[in-house]
Every structure is written in structure tokens, then in C-alpha cells.
Design brief:
- This protein has about 400 residues and is an alpha/beta fold.
- It has three domains: about 30 residues, no CATH class; about 200 residues, Glycoside hydrolase family 3 C-terminal domain (Rossmann fold); about 110 residues, Immunoglobulin-like (Sandwich).
- About 20% of the residues lie in helices and about 25% in strands.
- It has eight helices and 15 strands.
- A hairpin with a 4-residue loop joins β12 and β13.
- The termini are far apart.
- InterPro entries: Cellulose_deg_GH3, Fn3-like, Glyco_hydro_3_C, Glyco_hydro_3_C_sf, Ig-like_fold.
């Protein structure tokens, strides 16, 4: 409390003279646009949202052609709501997925909305449409949860651990897909799910978090091809909860994260698809000085569509005298590459980041010897390899 009051005093929030408080006047002038409502703020929120979308699967269903669609079904409990995540600010406005899709299509396109399948609404909507977009996921606060309990086993939040990784609404996805083979699963979630059935059967899957007031517009930009997706998974999505160690096992080395996990996964760390295709042609050069290693690779966009690629560099330590991760992300760059263009991409790794924590010395130690450098499109999609000696 003392710290909060001290900061408030420093900022002038407790001054009796309100004219000295610069925050009270923000947005109060009728001629002044509130800072989060300006055109630039809206544009930035939309851009960041679109850039965060991860394309998990696409069997030539995406991007959608707004000019050819007559009817679109937008289905699911997260199709027309924006939910706030933990400790987030209150959005100044909300653009839901339903609203974003309406904004993206041409005039005259019919949007059929069904929040759930009561009275068969979802199935009827999907069957009547050219394409069905089903939006499912989780509420960050938990579904009907109190402080330490949630009736939904796959829910998780502060004070509540997840007991399952299954997606409760995957049954709704199955019903929609049965009614319309052109189904897109939009997973709006705080964390991964074991959506093995959907990965096998649904033609297109995208993941988006509870991200912003521009959620609907940003997602629609990706679905309709205005933005070419290049988001990446920031976790390993396992196939089954039994692929993970016991919840009471806190040792990361016992199979947690991409650094130590063994066996096949649903989606690896750093994974994400694009509407473009990229070829990693060759390693152009390895250079090192006293502080840094610089690796330059050439990457070509082999498709007819401009796109972005996230070039990732991982390191492994085959000569290490201690137990080290199988690989560690040490650098990445997200770069735009035009259709047919080849770009040289340089990734820089500070040598100190190749060290490990030596408990005896109570310091990070960089071992002399060979370091294997792995360059690719995800932690499991390694395209180029090289070695360097420290």
C-alpha cells in the first residue's frame, strides 16, 4: 500500500488541484480523440492481432474469396464475444469475430449466426452456407468456476490446474463438419488442446488468443487473405495428456517443453503455416568474433503470393560434459519475402547465450567445443545444419 501511495503522490493523483493532474484531461476535450480510439491505435491493434494468428492446418480452403461466397455460417460460443484475459485492460471497443467477418465480405453476402446447436441451429446454419466458421475455445477466467474449482476439466487459470487437455466443444466441430465439409475451426484459447480429431478431419484450423479489441477484424484479415499468416506456436502441443510428466514433477528435464520432450507431438514449438511456401536454400556464411556468432542463410519464397517467414535458429551441444537440452532456440527473425524472391537472412547469437548455469560456480559457463546450429521453420522442421567451434 505504501508503494502505491508513493507512486500516486509522485504522479500528482492525490493533489487537490486537479489542474495539475495530466491524466484527468485525457479524452475529456470534445475535440480530442481518446488515445486508444485514434485511427493509428486501431490500425496498430488490428495489425498486431493479425500477425499473432497461427495457421495450424490448411487443405486449400484458405484464404477465402469474399467475392465468391454467398452465405457464410459463423458458429460457436466465441463467435460473437470478446473476453478479457487476466490482468488485461478494459478494451475501449470490441470487434467480435462475427463483426469482423461482416466487415470483410461484400454487400449482399448472407451471414448466418448460431451460437450453439440448440434446436439444431448450428447444423442448419452450416448446411445452408458455402463455408462454416466454427469458433470454440475457453474463457480465461474459467467456465462457471469459483476461486479454486472449475467444473470443466480442461479449464485452467490462476489457482486452477487443468485436469484434461481435451477440447469440450470439439463435438460441436464434428456436427458442423458433418453438415458442411468446408469447415474452418477457429480455436480461441489461452492454451493448447489435444485436437487430434480436428487435425485429422477438419480442412482448416487457425489459433488466436484472447488478444485485443480488434480480434474480429484481425482474424478476418487472415481468413480472407488480406494478411498472410506467419504466427508461431509458443508452446509444444502434445497429442495426449499422458505425453506430459506428472503434474507434481517440476523438473523440466523430465520431458517438459520442446527442449526435453521426446516423441511425436500434435504441433511443435515454433510451428505455423503460411499461404506461401518457402525453401531454405543454403547457409551462406558462419562468422564469429569474441562476443557473437552470425549465421546468414538464403530463403526463397517459391509461391506466387507475398508472405512472411519466421527463420529460427536452434543450438545443440553434442560435446557438452553436462546434461543439456536437445535443442534451444537462440535466434529468430520474421521477414517479409515477395513471391519468387530470395532473401539473405542473418541471425546473431551472443556467445554468452550458449552457456549453462553452473551450480557449483554460481554463474553461466560457456563450454569450449562444438556447437551444432540448426536452422528451420520450427523446432522440428529443421532445414539447414552447421557446426561451429567455441
Amino acid at each position: 500500500i505504501r508503494g502505491n501511495i508513493f507512486v500516486a503522490l509522485k504522479l500528482g493523483l492525490l493533489d487537490g488541484d486537479n489542474s495539475r493532474n495530466p491524466y484527468l484531461s485525457i479524452g475529456k476535450n470534445s475535440t480530442e480523440t481518446p488515445p486508444f480510439m485514434t485511427a493509428e491505435a486501431r490500425r496498430l491493434a488490428r495489425e498486431v492481432t493479425a500477425k499473432s494468428v497461427v495457421l495450424l492446418k490448411n487443405k486449400k480452403l484458405l484464404p477465402l474469396d469474399a467475392g465468391k461466397l454467398r452465405k457464410i455460417a459463423v458458429i460457436g460460443p466465441y463467435s460473437d464475444k470478446i473476453v478479457q484475459d487476466w490482468y488485461s485492460g478494459t478494451p475501449p471497443y470490441e470487434t467480435t469475430i462475427l463483426s469482423g467477418i461482416r466487415n470483410a465480405v461484400k454487400e449482399g453476402t448472407e451471414i448466418i449466426h448460431a451460437e450453439d446447436n440448440r434446436m439444431g441451429q448450428a447444423e442448419k446454419a452450416a448446411a445452408a452456407a458455402d463455408v462454416a466458421i466454427v469458433c470454440v475455445g475457453n474463457h480465461p477466467y474459467g467456465t462457471r468456476a469459483d476461486w479454486k474449482f472449475s467444473p470443466v476439466p480442461s479449464d485452467g487459470r490462476e489457482a486452477v490446474d487443468r485436469k484434461s487437455l481435451m477440447l469440450p466443444d470439439e463435438d460441436l466441430v464434428k456436427l458442423v463438419l458433418k453438415a458442411n465439409p468446408n469447415t474452418i475451426l477457429v480455436l480461441v484459447s489461452s492454451f493448447p488442446y489435444t485436437i487430434n480429431w480436428s487435425q485429422e478431419h477438419v480442412p482448416a484450423i487457425v489459433h488466436i488468443t484472447h488478444c485485443s479489441q480488434e480480434q474480429g477484424n484481425g482474424l478476418a484479415d487472415v481468413l480472407f487473405g488480406k494478411v498472410n499468416p506467419a504466427g508461431r506456436t509458443v508452446q509444444t502441443w502434445v497429442k495426449d495428456i499422458t505425453d506430459l510428466p506428472d503434474i507434481m514433477d517440476y523438473d523440466i528435464r523430465n520431458g517438459r517443453t520442446y527442449m526435453y520432450h521426446q516423441g511425436p507431438v500434435l504441433y511443435p514449438f515454433g510451428y505455423g503455416l503460411s499461404y506461401s511456401d518457402f525453401a531454405y536454400e543454403k547457409i551462406e556464411s558462419f562468422k564469429q568474433d569474441k562476443k557473437n556468432i552470425r549465421v546468414t542463410v538464403s530463403v526463397k519464397n517459391t509461391s506466387g503470393r507475398d508472405g512472411e517467414e519466421v527463420v529460427q535458429l536452434y543450438a545443440s551441444y553434442p560435446e557438452s560434459k553436462v546434461e543439456r537440452p536437445s535443442k534451444q532456440l537462440r535466434a529468430f527473425r520474421r521477414i517479409p519475402i515477395k513471391a519468387g524472391e530470395t532473401r539473405k537472412v542473418t541471425l546473431t547469437v551472443p556467445k554468452e547465450e550458449l552457456g549453462y548455469w553452473n551450480e557449483g560456480k554460481q554463474m553461466f559457463v560457456v563450454e569450449p567445443g562444438t556447437v551444432k546450429l540448426l536452422i528451420g521453420a520450427s523446432s522440428e522442421d529443421i532445414r539447414l545444419e552447421g557446426k561451429i567451434r567455441l
